[in-house]
């Protein structure tokens, strides 16, 4: 050993001599010149090498011996291997010592790590090698990226040899997600696939290039080692051959799966393959891409598409947490060049291929005086590096515009497009990967995320915020307006919420007549039929009077299809329609209306008619058609894929698989709209939402809830029941990707499934009745459901009913809810408070909010505590306890500020401003509103801004600034209609009516009150209906119709009494006192005045107190008690002036003038009446102007010598003839109310103010 050690040292030290002398003999002086060493070094080296027998002296010099040459070569090889291994050490780091790997594979190799600054370089090297390969051999423990299999398939299709060996887990993973691609690969005679053991490192040979693919412990690609050395290529090729030959050949098995799928597709009318990795299938329903995978909790997922994010299964077989699994796809030509159905966008959200083919309408809108493409406008802003959000109601075409933007961006060559469709893939959480990919991709990268307001996608906003400073990455978000406009409901942390305010928001334009014409022409082009004659009339038919509504675009499409006779069995396009058979809709969900009727002959749109007919048809169909229809529609609204497979969850002892298949066939053309490339395609979710609305109208709520609960439970139970999953597999011939997902992680699947099922009602609160009232909910959670979710359904159901305005339903749900934790009980008590406040039960609301606050405080939830205290402030305000409202609002403000909740701060400032407005009406009120408005504006909170504008309108109105008040109110009305808040819409309509009434525009005031009453009836709010009816009574009183006024006011009063709303009762009592004063029934008037004061007690606001003082003063005036009248009116003026209530002040000033007239003090009377007249005209108060002008006319008529009066004061109000009584009578006549608008109301009489419908 020592000799060998000495020999090695000599070889190491004198390697350069050995290698040089192996080439030929050299003398010592020649070595000095050749190697550059000194003579003494050469002498010592030759002596050492001679002594070791490694060189020998000859006549022509020294030459290496055989031993010397072999040792030199071996040692050089060792150094080369050492250098190769050292260079690749980082790349090989994740591999264990037992991995079978030859140094030959590292010979002259280049290594590529998945790390900064180019983390995706390894995948690019693999793809580049495969793209140009004529033949491929590979052994893989995992799939580095989904498109890899497509590369293999294309090589085999081109006649090249493909040999593939994979691990068992990778085979099962690939068979589930990419069965079509693997089946197509195996179907030819040029490929062989095996499942082998010992595949511990990826080994791939493409022509004369060998690549080692090293995976890290998390399953991602760690590095690629690439070599073109012949030894490396030969070793890799031999390694793949040995693994494949030693493994189990599955080529025929994969080919059989493909044949089975083809046969099944033939039975259902499909003529093409379904989606696969890079294959021809593409999601065309609610997502951009269809796939078989699902999230670890994933009820719906994307299986393919992103060639940089695939990864092998983790331990236990769970899928990787990758961008691909989380729904992202990278747009490329192959994706966009797939088969596209021209009629597909008429049924559902268009696929990317359909958008690229021009089958989706390019929406336009008027902007800056010209009509422009909405998509192009977004592209311009995105190209500047600005992030954008496209906001609009469901069914308005947001997703289509976003897909058009993505397609045009890709086709323009600007840069890469990373796209996540709504309801695709696992919940998005791979923020680091998305950020890295966006930074590393080529060109100006566009990231598009649909439905960003959903919990599953909201983390993308954080990535956009982190990349906001880069001008080569832009984000486009699609968001439903009802959630986007309510920041409190968004699942964003404060920093992301703040960034939301910096995102450029664009609103989906409402359809106009020109757009309807374009859409009609587009539908005709896509179907080959003639365009309808009058698309504008069809637009009017689907238009709602109260603003843009969800599904309006979809309704118009259905109208166009029905009016044009498109896609029915008799149309030219009918033969190509995949919706055949005996579908309830007559072959297509778009074929609405009754046969033989024109559009104007029915109130239903085509959409509504087709849904109604589908619901009616269920009663005539044999079981299990109704259950299957309910389940498929529920899954469609939930955004779930594999609905056909999951429908087999209904198979049991009484229901055979064949019965389920027949039921699914009957649904073809309604909720199911299969295409050749996507036999499981579903209609737009708005169709299914309307399906449930019609079903709830047709059948009793408990019956529907029981059916929904039974169907949902059957699906959820799959997480607990392996035997049922096996039965479904057998029924489907073994190919059941959804069952594979359940088995992979039942608990995670159950969590996602539960969230998806209840997400239907959370997204569409009007479907709350599908879930029962908690007390009789028929949805049973599986045992596999995580414990942290088991208590959530009652909370979700309660919020559904509250948000839907169904206060009885909310109460029933709250009564049945039994939370086990303090935080849950706190939310329950806050729910009770919300219900009580909306009902006008303010004392009960305050009590509930106080309980909630105590529980939130005990649980350490300061954000919840702030919300509860804010609720108490609002309840106190509505109850007329303005000081308590101010105190609670101030506390809520402090809490919200402490936890960094800017929206909470803004809402608290609003509550404080409201209380101040009621207490003193100082300029501080406007300041509070302005600050709150600034915060709402900064966070793009449309709803909050509308609230601010409402309160500003009230403040401006009180100050007599009617033009400004009306402007703010109209803007608030637009905001509420945008977000769909009908409760507050009704309030603003009443405010606009009050403005009109102060101006004497009785017809306008009554119209606004009736609109508010209609909304109140629609939403079932007795409180708002009472407000509206009291406004109708006030308008009638102003118009002089005192009988009608009394009827309306008494009706409103009865409702307020039922609600125990003292301040509202006092408001009505004040007006009833005025009615009796006008009638001259002074005793009755006094009773109403006394009742007003008793109701107000110590909680009287300055406005109520000022009005009460004025009424008592007028009563005293009519009775001739001038001193008491003067005192009461002086008090009224003082209180009104202090609070800034200009209308009350102007009226009291006019009444004070009348007191002076009665006293015979003409000079004082003129001063007071001219002041009232001038003030009343400035604030446009007809109730002050008319009596002041009439009093001045009478006063002047009783003074034949006008010189005795103050002509200067008179001249300030009426130039030209300031002392002419006729001029003042003319002035009063001009301002006098015309009651025609009130009396022309067809609802006039008892029904006008009656309580029908309450």
From TrEMBL:
Residue ranges, compositional bias (Low complexity): 568-592
Matches recorded under InterPro entries: ArsR-like_HTH, FilR1_middle_dom, HVO_A0261-like_N, nSTAND_NTPase5_dom, P-loop_NTPase, TPR-like_helical_dom_sf, TPR_MalT, TPR_rpt
Domain (HVO-A0261-like N-terminal): residue spans on this chain: 11-80
Biased composition (Gly residues): 269-284
One Pfam family, short name: FilR1_middle
Gene3D superfamilies: Tetratricopeptide repeat domain, Winged helix-like DNA-binding domain superfamily/Winged helix DNA-binding domain
Domain MalT-like TPR region: 953-1172
Record region (Disordered): 259-297, 568-623
Domain Methanogenesis regulatory protein FilR1 middle span(s) in chain numbering: 119-245
Name listed for the protein in its UniProt record: Transcriptional regulator
Protein source organism: Halorubrum kocurii JCM 14978
């Amino acid at each position: 050993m020592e000799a060998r050690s000495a020999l090695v040292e000599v070889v190491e030290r004198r390697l350069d001599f050995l290698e040089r002398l192996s080439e030929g003999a050299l003398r010592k002086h020649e070595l000095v010149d050749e190697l550059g060493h000194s003579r003494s070094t050469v002498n010592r080296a030759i002596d050492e090498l001679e002594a070791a027998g490694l060189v020998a002296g000859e006549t022509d010099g020294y030459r290496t011996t055989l031993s010397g040459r072999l040792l030199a070569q071996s040692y050089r090889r060792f150094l080369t291997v050492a250098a190769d291994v050292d260079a690749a050490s980082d790349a090989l780091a994740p591999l264990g010592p037992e991995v079978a790997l030859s140094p030959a594979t590292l010979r002259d190799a280049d290594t590529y790590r998945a790390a900064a600054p180019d983390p995706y370089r390894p995948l690019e090297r693999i793809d580049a090698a495969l793209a140009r390969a004529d033949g491929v051999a590979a052994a893989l423990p995992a799939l580095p990226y989904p498109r890899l299999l497509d590369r293999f398939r294309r090589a085999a299709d081109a006649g090249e040899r493909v040999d593939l060996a994979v691990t068992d887990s990778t085979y099962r993973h690939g068979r589930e997600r990419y069965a079509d691609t693997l089946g197509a690969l195996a179907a030819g005679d040029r490929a062989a696939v095996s499942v082998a053991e010992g595949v511990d490192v990826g080994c791939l040979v493409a022509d004369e290039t060998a690549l080692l693919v090293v995976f890290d412990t998390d399953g991602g690609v760690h590095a690629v080692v690439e070599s073109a050395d012949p030894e490396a290529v030969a070793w890799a090729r031999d390694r793949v051959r040995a693994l494949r030959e030693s493994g189990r050949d599955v080529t025929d098995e994969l080919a059989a799966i493909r044949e089975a799928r083809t046969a099944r597709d033939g039975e259902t009318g499909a003529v093409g393959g379904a989606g696969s990795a890079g294959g021809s299938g593409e999601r065309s329903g609610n997502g951009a891409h269809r796939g078989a995978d699902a999230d670890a909790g994933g009820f719906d997922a994307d299986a393919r598409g992103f060639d940089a994010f695939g990864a092998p299964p983790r331990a236990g077989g769970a899928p990787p947490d990758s961008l691909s699994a989380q729904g992202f796809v990278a747009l490329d030509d192959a994706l966009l060049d797939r088969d596209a159905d021209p009629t597909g966008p008429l049924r559902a959200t268009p696929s990317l291929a359909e958008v690229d083919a021009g089958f989706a309408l390019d929406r336009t809108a008027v902007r800056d005086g010209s009509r422009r493409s909405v998509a192009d406008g977004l592209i311009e802003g995105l190209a500047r590096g600005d992030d954008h959000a496209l906001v609009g109601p469901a069914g308005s075409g947001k997703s289509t515009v976003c897909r058009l933007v993505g397609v045009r961006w890709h086709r323009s060559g600007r840069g890469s497009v990373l796209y996540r469709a709504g309801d695709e893939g696992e919940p998005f959480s791979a923020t680091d990967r998305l950020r890295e990919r966006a930074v590393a991709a080529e060109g100006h990268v566009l990231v598009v995320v649909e439905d960003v307001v959903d919990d599953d996608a909201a983390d993308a906003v954080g990535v956009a915020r982190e990349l906001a400073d880069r001008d080569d990455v832009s984000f486009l978000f699609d968001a439903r307006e009802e959630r986007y406009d309510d920041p409190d409901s968004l699942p964003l942390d404060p920093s992301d919420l703040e960034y939301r305010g910096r995102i450029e928001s664009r609103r989906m334009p409402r359809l106009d007549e020109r757009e309807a014409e374009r859409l009609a022409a587009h539908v005709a082009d896509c179907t080959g039929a003639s365009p309808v004659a009058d698309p504008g009339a069809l637009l009017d038919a689907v238009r709602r009077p109260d603003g843009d509504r969800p599904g309006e675009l979809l309704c118009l499409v259905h109208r166009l299809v029905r009016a044009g006779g498109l896609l029915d069995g008799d149309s030219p396009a009918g033969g190509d329609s995949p919706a055949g058979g005996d579908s309830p809709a007559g072959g297509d969900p778009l074929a609405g209306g009754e046969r033989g009727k024109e559009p104007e002959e029915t109130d239903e749109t085509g959409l509504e008619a087709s849904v109604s007919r589908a619901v009616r048809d269920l009663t005539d169909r044999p079981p299990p058609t109704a259950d299957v229809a309910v389940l498929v529609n529920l899954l469609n609204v939930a955004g779930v894929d594999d609905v056909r497979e999951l429908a087999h969850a209904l198979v049991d002892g009484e229901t055979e698989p064949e019965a389920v298949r027949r039921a699914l066939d009957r649904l073809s053309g309604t909720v199911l709209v299969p295409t050749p490339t996507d036999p499981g395609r579903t209609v737009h979710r708005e169709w299914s939402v309307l399906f449930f609305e019609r079903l709830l109208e047709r059948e009793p709520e408990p019956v529907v809830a029981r059916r929904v609960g039974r169907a949902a439970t059957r699906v959820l139970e799959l997480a607990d029941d392996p035997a049922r999953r096996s039965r479904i597999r057998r029924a489907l011939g073994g190919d059941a990707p959804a069952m594979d997902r359940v088995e992979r992680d039942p608990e995670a699947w159950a969590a996602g499934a539960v969230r998806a099922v209840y997400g239907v009602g959370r997204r569409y609160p009007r479907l709350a009745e599908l879930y029962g009232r908690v007390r009789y909910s028929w949805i049973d959670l599986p045992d596999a459901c995580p414990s942290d979710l088991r208590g959530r359904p009652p909370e979700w159901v309660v919020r559904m009913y509250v948000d839907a305005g169904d206060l009885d339903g909310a109460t029933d749900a709250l009564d049945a809810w039994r939370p086990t934790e303090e935080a849950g009980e706190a939310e329950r008590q806050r729910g009770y408070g919300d219900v009580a406040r909306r009902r006008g039960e303010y004392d009960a609301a305050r009590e509930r909010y106080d309980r909630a606050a105590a529980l939130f405080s005990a649980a350490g939830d300061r954000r919840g505590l702030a919300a509860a205290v804010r609720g108490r402030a609002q309840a106190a305000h509505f109850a007329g306890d303005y000081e308590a409202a101010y105190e609670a609002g101030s506390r809520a403000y402090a809490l919200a500020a402490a936890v960094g909740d800017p929206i909470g701060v803004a809402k608290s400032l609003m509550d404080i401003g409201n209380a101040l407005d009621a207490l003193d009406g100082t300029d501080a009120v406007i300041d509070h509103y302005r600050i709150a408005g600034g915060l709402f504006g900064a966070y793009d909170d449309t709803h909050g801004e509308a609230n601010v504008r409402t309160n500003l309108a009230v403040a401006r109105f009180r100050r007599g600034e009617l033009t400004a008040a009306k402007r703010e109110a109209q803007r608030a009305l637009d905001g509420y209609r945008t977000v769909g808040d009908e409760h507050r819409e009704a309030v603003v309509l009443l405010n606009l009516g009050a403005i009109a009434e102060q101006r004497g525009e009785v017809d306008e005031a009554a119209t606004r009150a009736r609109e508010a009453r209609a909304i109140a009836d629609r939403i079932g709010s007795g409180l708002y209906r009472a407000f509206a009816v009291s406004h109708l009574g006030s308008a009638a009183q102003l118009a002089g119709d005192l009988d009608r006024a009394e009827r309306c006011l008494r009706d409103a009063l009865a409702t307020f009494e039922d609600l125990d709303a003292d301040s509202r009762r006092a408001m009505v009592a004040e007006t009833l006192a005025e009615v009796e004063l006008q009638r001259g029934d002074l005793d009755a008037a006094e009773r109403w005045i006394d009742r007003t004061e008793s109701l107000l007690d110590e909680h009287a606001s300055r406005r109520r107190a000022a009005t009460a003082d004025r009424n008592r003063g007028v009563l005293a005036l009519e009775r001739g008690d001038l001193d008491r009248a003067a005192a009461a009116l002086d008090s009224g003026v003082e209180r009104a002036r202090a609070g800034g209530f200009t209308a009350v002040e102007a009226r009291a000033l006019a009444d004070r003038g009348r007191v002076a007239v009665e006293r015979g003090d003409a000079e004082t009377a003129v001063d007071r009446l001219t002041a009232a007249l001038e003030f009343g005209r400035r604030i446009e108060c007809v109730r002050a102007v008319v009596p002041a002008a009439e009093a001045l006319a009478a006063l002047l008529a009783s003074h034949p010598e006008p010189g005795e009066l103050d002509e200067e004061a008179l001249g300030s109000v009426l130039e030209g003839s300031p002392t002419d009584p006729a001029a003042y009578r003319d002035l009063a006549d001009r301002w006098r109310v015309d009651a025609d608008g009130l009396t022309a109301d067809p609802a006039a009489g008892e029904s006008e103010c009656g309580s029908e419908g309450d």
